[in-house]
Design goal:
Distance between the termini: 51 Å
Order of helices and strands: EEEHEEEHHHHEEEEHHHHH
CATH topology of the largest domain: Aminoglycoside 3'-phosphotransferase, Chain: A, domain 2
Radius of gyration: 18 Å
Structural class: alpha+beta
Number of helices: 10
Helix content: 40-55%
CATH superfamily of the largest domain: Aminoglycoside phosphotransferase (APH), C-terminal lobe
Strand content: 15-25%
Length: 250
């Protein structure tokens, strides 16, 4: 079966996302792990079972010899676009963003990977000195576990305000179960890189006010969140995360 798509939505190192009518096709590079592709679809199905608003997975298929996941198209506007276009409303958008993330934390999804298992994998793959790798592993196993559902890539471009009302959350590739403070740290870092320090700090202030957590609870996970993003990032972003890692763990 060949690819028949209206337009490209996003291009990544190992995948291309197409719009195809009322559906979306995420087409993976042939080098991408088949097990990881099926696991991604399974993870999203597990979130869908909770009743949380996500685009429904429709199919896993091969197109031009490449594996692809077909899902519903979410008609609407991403929160990233709204934040960029409505600076005067930034606090209200970040407030909504934080509320949705906390709703995700409260989900009871079945059989998700454990956060510390996935972080251990990321640390083992990171382009860092062995001494720092050992310190990160030691830090990981001294931090508290948790049972929150963690999106793993909760950024404004993955929250869509739907045209017919309500919202949905995209891209559950990295979902795990564990301590929510690490997920907040990842979001903070990505807002810092994609927007600016003011936006990241306003987000963090909103989260702390709603959750009752302390700044140190989140920053205790910052080095680990940074190394996770370092492994997953594009080459052009690597310098940012290496600098941050050296700041959080000199």
């Amino acid at each position: 079966m060949s690819i028949d798509a209206d337009r490209i939505i996003a291009i990544r190192t190992d995948k291309i996302v197409y719009r195809n009518g009322n559906t979306v096709l995420k087409v993976f590079d042939p080098s991408y792990s088949t097990a990881d592709i099926f696991n991604e679809a399974l993870n999203q199905a597990r979130i869908e079972e909770t009743g949380f608003p996500v685009p429904k997975i429709m199919d896993i298929l091969k197109l031009d010899g490449k594996w692809a996941i077909r899902r519903e198209y979410a008609e609407g506007t991403t929160l990233q676009r709204l934040i960029q276009e409505g600076l005067e409303d930034r606090d209200s958008y970040l407030d909504l963003f934080t509320e949705v993330q906390r709703d995700i934390f409260a989900l009871k999804a079945r059989q998700l990977n454990r956060q510390k298992y996935k972080l251990t994998q990321r640390i083992s793959r990171a382009p860092i000195p062995e001494e720092k790798r050992e310190r990160l592993l030691e830090a990981l196993f001294t931090l508290p576990d948790g049972n929150a559902t963690l999106h793993g890539d909760f950024i404004p471009s993955n929250l869509v305000l739907l045209s017919q009302g309500g919202y949905c959350v995209l891209d559950w590739t990295h979902v795990t179960e564990g301590n929510e403070h690490e997920d907040v740290a990842r979001t903070y870092l990505q807002l810092l890189r994609q927007f600016d320090e003011n936006t990241a700090e306003r987000y963090l202030a909103a989260y702390l006010a709603k959750s009752g957590a302390h700044r140190g609870d989140v920053f205790g996970w910052m080095a680990l969140a940074t190394v996770a993003l370092l492994v997953l990032c594009r080459p052009s972003e690597r310098g940012f995360y290496l600098d941050r890692l050296n700041q959080y763990m000199p």
